[in-house]
Amino acid sequence: MTPTTSPAQPAAATGKNYLITQLDEVEPTRCPCGHARRGFATPDNKVATIHLVDIETDARVHYHKQMTEIYLVLEGEGFIEVDGERLPVKPMTSVFIKPGCRHRAVGKLKIINIPIPAFDPHDEWFD
Question: Does 10 map to a domain?
């Protein structure tokens, strides 16, 4: 595989006008929601990332001061808690989460998460 398609690490900049990653082959990282496979999470990318997330039933309520997130449910049924409101979700439900919104997913779900700007672990806050 070329450096832009390496599954073991996020896509690396190669001087081209695109990046590519194979999310299901990226090493999972523990996160407040379960385990995330983070694509395009490179030091030089500040625009956006994409995460394939396996939600665990014990996801923690958290928020971001800078980041907006877009969740797209791929598998499972459950709920998304947003600012204390519990909304039902199922495959193909999408949720737009603005900065400052306290949120968590509830249930065994698989989602795509698109953080904008790119994911920053220093922008995860807990009450």
Answer: no
